[in-house]
Amino acid sequence: MSENPSEATLHPFRPPPPGGLLHAVVGFDRQELQAIFDIYGRMVAQGIWRDYALDFSTQRAIFSIFRRSGEAAFYRIVKEPKSARKQGAYMVVAQTGLILKRGAELRRILGVLEKQSIFQTIG
After folding, report:
1. Which among 58, 62, 91, 106 could bridge 23 via Cys, Cβ 3.0 to 4.6 Å?
2. What is the average per-residue pLDDT within 93-108?
3. Long-range contacts for 8-16 (Cβ within 8 Å, ≥24 apart)?
4. Across 89-106, average pLDDT
5. Are 93 and 76 contacting, i.e. CB atoms less than 8 angstroms apart?
């Protein structure tokens, strides 16, 4: 069979057409990713972080940060648009599940990661 795949299968994260049955997937836009990768790059250069993962769903987008690829996520940067009016769309969550900072401005909440890196132990 030499059928060409439809565009929907080539672009699974494209928002659905009006009246479509698919749900839109939450993701990070270019400026958000730039802010995240600015701090991520600095921490990788210092040898503190080594890996990351991106997860997208209809409810939230998650940028997970790892010290080692075999471990659980050290930090998670979460974007939940449904909580934007109440508590802010963004939050930084520690490995233990503790919410370190929550707010409406991504760059402001990323500041908590800069402060946390000061207290890192070498081991």
Report:
1. 58
2. 93
3. 13/56
4. 93
5. yes
